[in-house]
Amino acid sequence: MTILERLFALQDKEYAVFQSKLTPGIEPELFIGVRVPEARKLAKALKNDSETDSFIRSLPHTYYDENMLHGLILSEIKEYDSCIQAVDAFLPYVDNWAVCDIMSPKVFRKHKAELIHKIREWSASEATYTCRFGMEMLMTHYLDEEFDPAYLDIPADVHSDEYYVKMMQAWFFATALAKQWDAVIPYIQEQRLDQWVHNKTIQKARESYRITPEQKEYLKGLKIKKP
């Protein structure tokens, strides 16, 4: 059974309809309807499958679910350089937020000194989902023990009209406020972010249970009012 046949064996047509409504820009007929937990199981089962390498190299894929599976397989690659190479080969074909966000290679946790250089490169890309992926990896790996205030300039320096880039910036800074308030709040106080991102960051932070009521009230007063 081919990998595509395995995906169709897991098909849930009602879920395909639901998923297509959450993922604008992708034709409804390109959704097979594989639920994410089932796709994760398949990705783990395919780690040592002889067909997997061929599947990874066969780009572009036709179906949304193939791309989701591809992202999950990349997340299981254990060798850092191979993983980076595979991610770089795949990113140009990522065309939606869900596939972008499903990728979270486990090996990145052990290579943060090298990874930050790739994050700078990805985040500076003009390609929507390459840029989004870079900022998401920064959010995932560098807001705790590896935090450096200088890293905040990586997403702050991104200026884009793309909705999914701006949403990632707001998500990043709202999360950063929850984890590194003292370092991050000047970016809001001094209005260093584009206005839409600034206000969306405040909105998302005020919706977070990790932000105190006092912090939420303070952030409310920092919203930029439209002229």
Characterization of the model:
- By secondary structure, this protein is mostly helical.
- It has helices at residues 3-9, 13-22, 36-45, 52-57, 64-74, 80-90, 97-102, 112-123, 128-141, 153-156, 163-179, 181-189, 195-206, 213-220.
- It is globular, with a radius of gyration of 19 Å.
- The model has no long low-confidence stretch (mean pLDDT 96).
Key features?
about 230 residues, mainly alpha, globular
List the helices and strands and how they pair.
Blueprint: H1 3-9, H2 13-22, H3 36-45, H4 52-57, H5 64-74, H6 80-90, H7 97-102, H8 112-123, H9 128-141, H10 153-156, H11 163-179, H12 181-189, H13 195-206, H14 213-220
